[in-house]
Design a protein that fits this description.
Helices cover 57% and strands 0% of the residues. The chain is mostly helical and 82 residues long. The chain has 2 domains: 31 residues, no CATH class; 40 residues, no CATH class. Helix 1 runs antiparallel to helix 2 and helix 4 packs parallel to helix 5. Pfam families: DUF7218 (PF23855), Rho_N (PF07498).
């Protein structure tokens, strides 16, 4: 029978620091793994340069509800706050 594999934290020091600051474990893991991978930082100004379609796709990936009813600015705020 296959074993469930636990998610791996790529930058444990960053993860621990974020959790200590009160961030949820999910968000801390996502941020620390994104930093390790060198992918887009959600606090980056580059979010403002992306299309609404791109923002909707990212919002879907991270599980933001009611994303289709949001404006581009609301999507950016929701992604940065998630």
């Amino acid at each position: 029978m296959p074993r469930d594999k636990a998610p791996q934290i790529k930058k444990p020091d960053t993860y621990d620091a974020l959790v200590d600051k009160g961030m949820s474990k999910e968000k801390a893991a996502r941020i620390s793994n994104a930093q390790a991978a060198g992918t887009i930082d959600h606090r980056s100004k580059k979010l403002d340069e992306r299309t609404k379609v791109d923002l909707l796709a990212e919002a879907k990936e991270i599980g933001i509800k009611n994303r289709h009813n949001m404006t581009k600015d609301e999507l950016i705020k929701a992604i940065r706050g998630h």
